[in-house]
Amino acid sequence: MSRPFPPPPFRIGDLVVDPPLLQAPMAGFTNAAFRQMVREYGGVGLIATEMVNARGFAWMDEHVAEHPERLWGVADEARPLAVQIWDNDPATMSKVGRRLVEEYQVSVVDINFGCPVRQVTEKAHSGSYLLRTPGRMFEIISRLVKACAPTPVTAKIRLGCSPETINCNEVARVVEEAGAAALTVHGRTAKDMFRGHADWDRISEIKSHLKQIPLIGNGDLDSAQKVVDAFKRYDVDGVMIARACLGRPWLFAQAAAALRGEPVPADPSLAQQRDCMLHHYELVKQRFGEEKGTVLMRKYACCYAQGKYGARHFRSHVANVSSADEFYRVVEEHFPMKSKEEMKAEMA
Q1: Three-point CA angle 262, 265, 267, nearest 5°
Q2: What region holds the DUS-like FMN-binding domain (predicted)?
Q3: Active-site annotation holds for 115
Q4: For residue 129, what is the domain's CATH number?
Q5: Do the Cβ atoms of 128 and 81 come closer than 8 Å?
Q6: Which class for 262: exposed (0-12), middle (13-18), buried (19 or more C-beta within 10 A)?
Q7: Which residues are annotated as a binding site?
Q8: Domain check: are 87 and 207 in the same one?
Q9: Residue 136 and residue 16: Cα distance in Å, rounded?
């Protein structure tokens, strides 16, 4: 299917998402430090937090007068900003949603109906587990929409719980009828986890089952060209970039340029990427302190090295650092400074 290009901005309620590029909520990764890195490079229309356990939020609020660590930075950072929450109890979800709107003035409250992790699904009967009970989804969404008004509520789903039980078209209709302002679809089932390839044909098909709310596609978008192709080939209003941006916060700026028809900026040099990672580390340390910040930064450092020559060697060293001195030493001695292409050229 040929689509209008360049894709126009779209609305989530009264919020204009421009460019139509969204950063996915990712547990353990999209904290305030990472969100700041993405903002500094630009090109993203809507940024999201990590997913927040609504029941945990409510318990902390009632017992210890604190809020979840995953809401670090939310009150003070730039808008627009979406906060994603999860649980299976409509009352708890609506209560937490209202707090996010009143106390944090968030731009969007997003509901996670897509997480495939066992701790969320089988143990908590939340996330993608709820795809098997569209009626329960309707109740959660409709209660949250009323509690959060006029702030828009959105939902993120998968195609279904398994390849044998794909029900995304039915669920999409339920999401819209319940009052959600937008729907994001990851093109895999929960059983697939992150294996195989996202089914963008299935995502695109959902559009015909929606009357007016925007459809956002998600899955396997790891380059500016793939973002362009998604808009040209599939019936979506926006796209969401997830894992591919973790070590490449500049990916949104590249995709935005491509959508404008401008030359795509080259990746930063490896030295610049190393400096970007070190800047990220400083932001993490400012919030968590040296010891905890260094441990937290290990996984981000591995993302920055991914796909480079010597990445495995670097990961084996950075995985054990526990102090700033160790981190800086490992980066100085082992961070990959040549791409795989450069190494192939040298060896040819």
Answers
A1: 155
A2: 23-335
A3: yes
A4: 3.20.20.70
A5: no
A6: exposed
A7: 25-27, 84, 156, 186, 242-243
A8: yes
A9: 29
* Two tokens, residue 348: 């040819």
- Nearest CA to 27 among 243, 251, 315? 243
**pTM score, whole prediction:** 0.93
Contacts (Cβ under 8 Å, ≥6 apart) of 312: none
Residues 121, 255 within the same domain: yes
The catalytically annotated residue of 115, 161, 168, 276 is 115
CA distance 105 to 149: 12
Q: How far is CA 134 from the centre of its chain?
A: 23
Place of tokens 């969100």: 35
pLDDT tens by residue, 195-214: 999 999 999 999 999 999 99
Cβ partners under 8 Å of residue 322, min gap 6 = 291, 294, 295
Q: Do the bridges between strand 215-218 and strand 238-241 make them parallel or antiparallel, or are there none, so unpaired? A: parallel
Residue 305 belongs to what domain range?
270-347
pLDDT single digits (tens) 112-149 = 999 999 989 888 899 999 999 999 999 999 999 999 99
